[in-house]
Amino acid sequence: VQLQASGGGLVQAGGSLRLSCAASGRTSSVVNLGWLRQAPGKEREFVAALSWSGGSTYYADSVKGRFTISRDNAKNTVYLQMNSLTPEDTAVYYCAAPDRYTRSGWPPKSFDYWGQGTLVTVSS
Predict the structure, then answer these.
(1) Are strands 32-38 and 45-51 parallel, antiparallel or unpaired?
(2) Who is most buried in 14, 83, 116, 122, counting CB within 10 A?
């Protein structure tokens, strides 16, 4: 499974960005997909997750009400719409997915497949 993240950039505080994660390859191995982020000098943290088939979603408290995760099944793409961005949202954002045959549980906590990361910078 290959994950390709895109959509990062520089935005002012209060602005919005939409990240995309396109999945390819053996996508039948993936039923859940998540977004995580890593800010400079900090540990990687979970942001949001989506159940590909059922559409269930889960968010970290820090982004709840501001970020929305969604999917386009026809394009094998998951999106992260980020609104009301603050400088604290500055990070490299990764999409990731657990392999359905080796990991289970919701929301996903461990991941097997990772995108390359896309940088989001929010200026004050």
Answers:
(1) antiparallel
(2) 122
Cis amide leading into 107 (omega within 30): yes
Q: What is the spatial distance between Cα 13 and Cα 88, in angstroms, rounded to a whole number? A: 10
Tell me 63's DSSP state: T
Which residues does residue 45 pair with via DSSP β-bridges, in sequence order? 37
Q: What is the pLDDT of residues 82-102, one digit of tens each?
A: 999 999 999 999 999 999 999
Residue 54 has pLDDT above 80, yes or no: no
Residue 121 near residue 47, CB atoms below 8 Å: no
Contact criterion met (CB below 8 Å) for 6 and 115: no
> How far apart are alpha carbons 44 and 96 in whole angstroms?
12
Predicted confidence band of residue 80 (pLDDT cuts 50, 70, 90): very high
For the chain, give the mean pLDDT. 95
